[in-house]
Amino acid sequence: MPMVLCDCHVHLASYEAQESYDVIRRAEGANVKTIITAGTTLETSRRCIELASSFTSVYAGVGIHPNRVRGFLKDSELEALERLARSPRVVVWSETGMDYLPNAPNRQWQEQAFREQIRLARRLRLPLVWHSQVTEPNTAGQHPETLRILREEHAEEVGGVMHYFQADEATARRAIDAGSFISFAKPLLRQPHQWAIAQKLPLANIVLETDASPQPYKPSRADWTEPKDVALVAQKLAELKGVSVEEVAEATSRNLLRLVGLHS
Ligand SMILES: [Zn+2]
Hints:
By secondary structure, this protein is of the alpha/beta class. The chain has one domain (about 5-260): TIM Barrel. The chain has ten helices and eight strands. Strands 1-2-3-4-5-6-7-8 form an eight-stranded parallel beta sheet.
């Protein structure tokens, strides 16, 4: 049987319609059989659900990205999110979290949105795919703040994924203790800092992603990251761990499919 890969976090709703279909087809051709597309607003969450209803490989997340909060989330917005999250093929709450970069939205707005979304995810029994972007990548940075909110809101009840991992080992361990998988992406290919961490963490705690979205700033379209590239992340992780890429594919796919209730 050919190996099967999963991409736990992409932004398919950010592409033009035809392009998103092509991206999905190329991923399917590269044995990426499960793609979870993340919403960032009500509108893109809706679009994720549409895509998930059209492609057997695609499942949807619903959520408001920390960089897209424009004030405290209103009850009407939370109700709309909840309705969307109850749609067929929604398997995660994604994307939510905290962003500590200087130009990110007001911290109190972000925190209220994050807490309310964790509560909704718990009510709907959806695992949380969470973002935590800090001012100094590859350090603990402000991650303890994000983890404190997850703990205070009992996110471990539903579990989840620390997406696009770029922190230190202690943070990875704390995220795992808080019920989350560590999701490696293409930075693993180029950031030696992550190699020792990837070697030490058990495969049982790891999932893979690309966080793919359009990258018009790259001169060549062929260089845009796409879900098919999750194979590169799997290959790198296999090299680092001294195991076969099939073993990495099998373990990370099983981890994700179990988390989201899509048993293989
Ligand atoms: Zn994302």
